[in-house]
Amino acid sequence: MRIFSAWACLVALLLSACAPAARPDASPAARPALWKLADADTTIYLFGTIHALPPGYKWRDATLDAAFASADALVVEAVLDRDPAKTSALLVGLGRTAGLPPLAERVPAGKREALSTLMARSKLPTAFLDGMETWSAALLLVGVTLGDLGIGAEEGVERRLEAEFGAAGKPIEGLETPEQQLGYFDALPEPAQRDFLATLLDDPEQSRADFQRMLASWSKGDEAGIAQSFDEEIELSPQLREVLLDRRNAAWTEWLARRLDKPGTVLVAVGAGHLAGPGSVVALLKAKGLTVERVQ
Prior knowledge:
Shape: globular
Order of helices and strands: HEEHEHHHHHEHHHHHEHE
Strand order of the largest sheet: 4-3-5-2-1-6
Structural class: alpha/beta
Helix content: 40-55%
Number of strands: 6
Number of domains: 1
Strand content: 5-15%
């Protein structure tokens, strides 16, 4: 289930739909990676996040606190409505199509029993899920699986930062809209959509182990470990890599280069997998001749 962990966290952020476990995981002395892109009158901190975390997980330190406090504004992947029902309504509007085969026919025969169990646990009517496109049905079901892992978007980095910047009266903006983010899934070819749905039905213990490895790499600021986690996940579906990672990295790189023309200090907080590895935003910025410094 390597493809599951990172993209399921993105889905958790979109839908804010999973119920975290009551017991916090033990938090190590975390030092997540932080970069700085700057010119004479502009400083942009680049912080790689995890969109969903175990409750009580401690990840802040003095370096991050100082960078966050110095920022005049926060930029996240997308600014979401605090009411998850509105995002769910957007998903249903975009992801419902008439005349689709039953959802059970869109997964391998050996996974149909697991899908039936997951659908029952979601408490969503079978007829309703059968009418959803494969990607949107998967997104509606993912909250159940994330709840089993004991992680939630309300504990995620973005939610905490948005609350902090909002309380300080600092502006918050998005690199994308929620419609754009859901549109990435909607644009996936049907085989890639079915791969995504099938990953929800894999061994939950393997999913838990994959997430814990990703969390450990992120907490230590281990760029190689973060990049490996994402590479291992998306190697199962090149279409997912192209749509959800490569295209977005390229677009965000151009946005950051333009943002240097505006004076001030800004914190840009996006999923950690976008900032680590050969095709990352950091690598693309350096390829444009811009100086990006790892400050933690």
